[in-house]
Amino acid sequence: METTLVLVILSLVLCHLSISAALHWRRVLYPSAFRVKRGTPALLNPSVQKSVEDANLLYEVVWSGLYVEEEKSVLRVADEELASLRRLQPLEVVCEDVLPRTLSDIRRLCHNLEQRRAHLSKEDFERTVLTMVYTAQRVAHSSMGHQRELWADALLQLYKSIKKDLGAE
C-alpha cells in the first residue's frame, strides 16, 4: 500500500514538473503584444516585417534615425519621408505598446532570452532588436553612474541574445 502511494505521488510530481517545464519554455517574451489596447488598431501580435521589402524598410528606418522616447506613445523617425509612410503604422504600435520601457522589464526580458533554447520567432527577433535600439538610446542619455552601467549591461545582454539566436556564439 505504501509503495503504491509513493509511486502515485512520484508520478504526480513528475507530471507536474514536465508540465511546468513545458510551460516555462513556451513563455511569451512580449506579453503586451497579445493585448489589444484602446486607440490601437486591431493588431494582435503586431509585426513590421511581413516581406523582404518590409525588412528593408525597417532597416532603413533604424539606420536613418529611429528614436523611441521614454514616455509611451512617442516615436520619432528622423527622415520625414519615411515617417509619413502608412506601412510604418505597425512599427508605431510595436514601439508604443509592445516594447518594454523600464529597466526592470528589460532585465526580465534579458533573463527570459537567456533561458530560451529555441530560436526566436521573427516577431520576437524584431522586437528584441527594437528593444536593443531603445536600450542603446537610454545608455546614451543616461548620466554617468550606476544607472548607466545597468542600462549598458542590459544592452550587452540583448546583444548576446541576438548573437546567440543568429548562431554566431
Order of helices and strands: HHEEHHHHH
Q: Report mean pLDDT, rounded to a whole number.
A: 77
How much helix, percentage-wise, in residues? 55-70%
Shape: globular
What share of the residues does DSSP label as strand, in percent?
under 5%
- Give the strand tally: 2
Radius of gyration, in Å, reads: 20 Å
Largest sheet: 2 strands, antiparallel
Strands side by side in the biggest sheet: 1-2
The number of helical elements comes to 7
SSE-based structural type: mainly alpha
| Count of discrete structural domains | 1
User: How far apart are the first and last residues' alpha carbons, in Å?
Assistant: 53 Å
Q: Which stretches of 5+ consecutive residues score pLDDT under 50?
A: 20-26
Signal peptide: 1-22
Pfam family, one: FAM180
Organism: Pangasianodon hypophthalmus
Coiled coil: 68-123
Structure commentary:
- The protein has 169 residues and is mainly alpha-helical.
- The chain has one domain (32-165).
- Helices cover 62% and strands 4% of the residues.
- It has helices at residues 2-25, 52-65, 80-83, 89-98, 103-115, 122-141, 146-165, and strands spanning 66-68, 75-77.
- Strand 1 (66-68) and strand 2 (75-77) form a beta hairpin.
- Helix 5 packs parallel to helix 7 (146-165) and helix 6 (122-141) packs antiparallel against helix 7 (146-165).
- The protein is globular and about 75 Å long.
- The protein starts with a helix and ends with a helix.
